[in-house]
Structures are given as C-alpha cells and as structure tokens.
Design goal:
The complex is a heterodimer of chains A (517) and B (95). In chain A, 23% of the residues lie in helices and 21% in strands. By secondary structure, chain A is of the alpha/beta class. Chain A folds into two domains: 8-36 and 47-140, no CATH class; 180-516, Rossmann fold (3-Layer(aba) Sandwich). In chain B, a hairpin with a 2-residue loop joins strand 2 (31-35) and strand 3 (38-44). Classes of the chains: A alpha/beta (517), B alpha+beta (95). At the A-B interface, helix 6, helix 7, strand 15, helix 8 and helix 10 of A face strand 1, strand 2, strand 3, strand 5 and strand 6 of B.
Chain lengths: 517, 95
C-alpha cells in the first residue's frame, strides 16, 4: 500500500533488558504456526505433545528465560535478548513501525524483530534452530495500545488530530507572522537551490552533531532524510529520545542545505536534557572521523575575560578541537547568543554567527548572535560567517520539528519571563519556532556537505581550510544592524565583528571550490 | 537540576606517566579517554564523591569551572583536575 512516509524503518536502538515473548510448542498436526494460512475450526491440531512441552520448558530454563505461564499450545516467557538469539540463531533488532495509536492517529512505535538466516519475514517472529527441542516458533511481544477511547492530552490549544493522520505531523503548523520553514525557506536564504540543481546535495557525506539527542520525527522520514540511530554518551540515556528537542529541531537545518547527507547524532545530554557529556560527546564524534562535525553549544565566560590566556582545561579542549580539524574534519561551532564561548574562537573552527533575513529577503546582522574579536587568539574574529538566525527577544524564527511535549515545545509556546509572546504553536504538537546560532551551525555544516559531495571521486578531499576559504570568500556582505548588545558590534561593508564575512551562499561557495581547488 | 553523570579534565604535568594515571582512574571505576593534554574522566556522582570527598563541590549544572583535589596516588603526575562549566545550548540566551 502506498504511504506518504515509510511504514517501517530499521534502527539500531538497544533492546530492553527483559523481553516478553512466546515459545510455540511443536504442533501435533505438524503445521507450524509460522506457516499457518488460516485458523482452523479448533486449536487442537496446534496443541503440543507432552514430550515437546517438557522439552520446551527445559529449553526455556536452560536459555535463561523465565516461564510466566503455559498452555497446551505454548509458553509465555520473559528474558534477555541473548536468550531468544540463542534459541533462534538470529539477532534481535529494533524497527520503528507506523501504527495506529492514540486518537486513531498513526505514529512510529518501536518494535523488536528477529533477523538472520532462515528467519521469517513477519515482524517479531523467529524460527528456532534445530537444537531447540520442542518448539516450532518464537514470537516476541508487540507493543500494544489500550483499545478504550483514546485519551488525548487535554490542552485547550491542542490541534485535534485527524483520524488516520500521522502524529506528530510531518507538515509544520501555520502561525501568524513571518518565519522560515525547513527545508525550503532556509535553503533559499543560504543560496542552496542552484547547488542542488547541479546535483550536489550532500550525498556520501556524514555529518555528526553532538547535542541533546534526536527524536525520530515523521518530518525526517517523510523527507527520506538519512538519520543514523543516535549514540548516547551518558550511561542509561535513551538513544531515541530528546527531552529538550534542541538536537532534533536544529538538525533539520542540516538537511535544508544537504538533504542527501547522512546525519549521525550523538546524544550528550542526561535524562533531564542537560549537556553533561559535551566533552565526551565531542571525543566520541572525533573517533567516528566524519567529514563534518557540528556543535550548537558552548560555555560562557566573562567578557572581556580576566586574562588573555586560556585556562589549562580550556586549552586542553581547544587542542582536541584543533586536532579534529587537523584530521580533516570540518568542525563548526555556533558563535553563541550573547555567550562568550571559547570553542568558536579556536582559529581552525568555523564559527557560525547570525544574519536575519526578512520577508523581503533584506539582510541585517542578528542582534541575537554573538560577534567579537577573540582576546585569546590574535586576529581571530568570531564569527567567520553566518547562517540564518532570528532577532531578539526570542529568535522565534524557524519552524522546527521536535518531540511532542519536549522542553522547547512547551517553553516556546508560552510567553517568556519578560512577557514576550509564545510562538503560537501548541505545547505538544511537535513543532516550535526557534533558532539562535544553534541553527546557523548546522546550516553551515549542511553547506559544507554540499561542497564535499561535489568533489570529483579521484580528487583529493577538500581540507577544512579550503572549505572555510570557499565559504568565507563568497558570502553575501551584510552591512546593517548590530550583533548581540553584549558586544554591540555593527555590520559594515567587508569583514566585521557582527557577521564576519556575512551570510554564507552555498552555490557561490561551490563554484569557488570547483574553480580554486 | 543536577545530574548523576559527571565528566572532568585531568591536566597532566610535563613528562607524566599517562598510562599509570589512566590506569589508576580506570581502576577506581572512571571512564577514561586520552586527550592531547590530559585525560577525560567520567563517572557517577557517587564515584566522584568516593574519590574526591563526600562534601566536595562538584559544580553540577554550574556556570564556572570547579577544581577538584588531586588524589595522593597520582599527585606526582597530575597538575589539576577540573569539572568544566556546563555548556549551554545556543538556541537560547545566557541565563
């Protein structure tokens, strides 16, 4: 059956520690439940013989499965993935499958499957090895939802999900005022369409993003974006959730520029969403040796700093960043939203600042974005250049997909502490208006992926310095507005402390790289 | 909200026996990752308290760096141990 979004997506999520399942005892009638085409009038031909039942119970115990209950047909069991794998010789994997759930809408639900040689195609079913005496099939428990009237979150402003619809919707909501949509408006503002028309869309390029996690929003699947199951650095943190929504939403900016890139998210947050493992996440990212590594976070120090020398711990991290670039990884850090961070100041890094594009495409420096001369590294200006970022007070500028009910979904829907209004989206719809230089970094990472994907197969790879030169040399100069009031630098003709070289332009940067390298 | 997971940078002295320092922290139960200028260690709050002192300020969620005392067995090679300030996400303003 045709579907607007994929019905099933293979992921590499972790199986739960204890899995409920069912061992089907060899049928007296000789037809395995795996081969049954229609149910007979009675179940008798599927009853097990006493000897087989005894053997099946013995098998369950020896494999490490605990018997929950038994009948004439089979045994309900619970145990670790390894026990099922031992019985079937297959491997337990996770799959996201679109199923009807609350309020008759469809959403992705994680299923377990047994895959491998001789395994049946039916989800959650396994065929035992010849050594597994007494049983003909293994069936893993499928996720089930209560069949009573669906309880939809009772929020007055919630949209009413339409029966049969997909939740959360891959299509963004419409709200009053001017804002950008992904992918089309962000792509337009970054000069991306002409690069796509040449066939360069980030194909073959892996972009790693260290952030709060990644929720498999139907927006990504509907667009057929390639997202690898996140790696979680903090022990016990889920690989498939994003309590803040930051990593999920901002990653959509990568695909706005590079729809064919492969995204590998690294979750560096704990269960509350705090970025407690940023260093570990960055180190993990380096190990993966991607072509592009984007980071939408950073610390904050007094400005101007008390000393023009980095602390040993900042120097240690700066060295790691420098080393990543020396290994050929194009590393992007966001410049900050008024923060004064060390990370984007590392000279080899691409520091991503902010330019605001209005409804008539007029450009000005974003007063939400940091811009300054580095006191630590001589002649280093942050940012190098800019992506698209909103304005104070909240930079509610790009409609981005996030996990329903996550921190940003709720927070951005409400007025802030100063009374600035919310984004007019419901607090649980899986969409919110936000940006910051957190948006600029993945946008520029996506543009870098375009340049890398355009490299002829036998040519030497573009170096990070070459990519930086191509991007910086072809920016649209921005000459009005100021950066964040903490630094208050004006945008003027040429390179400046508000926007660096200006707004990145993908097609021109691509041409520059093709002509010069 | 504080987290149970903490990471810290161990800055080594010139000529330090990196392998021994790494092994010592590893034996204590920390996750260890070699850095160019030191060692990244990570573990639970209780492990940090056991190693560095039950009443030690661990700076969780803090905006400034927090220095930890250097355990005696590695004092010869370790210059400092610091829990780096928690980064903020750059979708938002500094708070």
């Amino acid at each position: 059956m045709a579907s607007l979004i994929p019905q099933e997506i293979a992921t590499s999520g972790e199986a739960p520690g204890q899995i409920h399942g069912y061992l089907s005892i060899n049928s007296k009638g000789g037809t395995s439940v795996l081969d049954v085409e229609s149910l007979p009038a009675t179940s008798e031909s599927f009853h097990g013989k006493k000897a087989d039942t005894t053997a099946a119970l013995k098998l369950a115990n020896s494999s490490g499965l605990k018997v929950v209950a038994q009948s004439r047909l089979g045994i309900a069991v619970v145990g670790p993935a390894g026990a099922y794998e031992e019985i079937t010789g297959g491997k337990i994997v996770t799959k996201e499958i679109l199923v009807y759930a609350e309020a008759a809408t469809r959403r992705y639900v994680t299923h377990l499957d047994i895959v491998g040689a001789n395994q049946p195609s039916a989800i959650g079913c396994g065929r035992p090895t010849s050594n597994a005496a007494g049983i003909e099939a293994v069936v893993l428990e499928r996720p089930r939802s209560p069949q009573a009237t669906a309880a939809w979150p009772a929020v007055a402003s919630s949209p009413t999900p339409q029966s049969g619809g997909i939740w959360p919707s891959p299509i963004p909501p419409t709200v009053p005022g001017f804002y950008l949509r992904v992918p089309q408006d962000v792509a337009l503002g970054l000069g991306v369409p002409a690069a796509h028309q040449q066939g360069f869309r980030g194909q073959g390029v892996t972009v790693v993003m260290v952030d709060t996690g990644h929720f498999l929003h139907p927006f990504f699947t509907a667009h057929h974006y390639q997202v690898t199951t996140p790696i979680a650095v903090v022990p016990g943190a889920s690989r498939t959730s994003d309590p803040v929504g930051h990593g999920t939403g901002e990653s959509a900016n990568i695909f706005a520029a590079a729809p064919d890139a492969q995204l590998q998210p690294i979750r560096a947050s704990d269960s509350s969403g705090q970025l407690v493992a940023a260093l570990g996440g960055f180190m993990k990212a380096k190990e993966l040796k991607p072509q592009v590594l984007t980071n939408s976070w950073g610390g904050d120090l007094p400005f101007p700093p008390n000393s023009n020398t980095l602390s040993p711990q900042d120097a240690a991290f700066a060295l790691e960043i420098k080393d990543a670039v020396e290994q050929g990884i194009f590393v992007v850090f966001s410049a900050g939203n008024g923060q004064f961070s060390v990370e984007p100041q590392v000279p080899e890094v691409f520091a991503a600042g902010g330019v605001y594009m209005g409804s008539n495409m007029a450009l000005q420096a974003s007063n939400y974005a940091s811009g300054f001369q580095s006191p630590f590294f001589p002649s280093r200006i942050v940012p190098d250049a800019c992506g698209l970022v909103g304005l104070l007070p909240r930079a509610a500028y790009i409609m981005l997909p996030i996990a329903p009910d996550c921190e940003l979904d709720v927070e951005m829907s409400r007025p802030d502490e100063q009374g600035n209004p919310g984004d007019a989206t419901p607090p649980n719809d899986g969409w919110a208006l936000f940006s910051g230089t957190s948006a600029a970094a993945p946008q520029i990472a996506g543009v870098a992926a375009i340049l890398i994907s355009a490299r002829p197969p036998k040519a030497a790879p573009l170096s990070p310095a070459q990519i930086k030169e191509a991007l910086n040399s072809t920016c649209i100069d921005v000459t009005s507005g100021h950066c964040h009031p903490r630094f208050n630098n004006p945008a003027v003709p040429g390179q400046d402390l508000a926007t660096g070289f200006g707004l990145v332009h993908a097609a021109d940067a691509l041409k520059y790289a093709q002509d010069h390298f | 909200m504080s987290s149970d997971y903490i990471e810290a940078i161990v800055i080594l002295r010139d000529g330090a026996d990196t392998a021994r320092v790494r092994a010592w922290f590893g034996d204590c139960g920390f996750g260890t990752t070699s850095m160019h200028a030191g060692l990244l260690i990570s573990g639970s709050e209780s492990l940090f308290r056991t190693t560095f002192g039950m009443h030690q300020d661990l700076g969780q969620g803090g905006k400034i760096d927090t220095q930890l005392p250097t355990p005696a067995p590695v004092r010869e090679w370790v210059s400092s141990i610091v829990i780096r300030r928690l980064p903020s996400l750059h979708a938002q303003q500094p708070t």
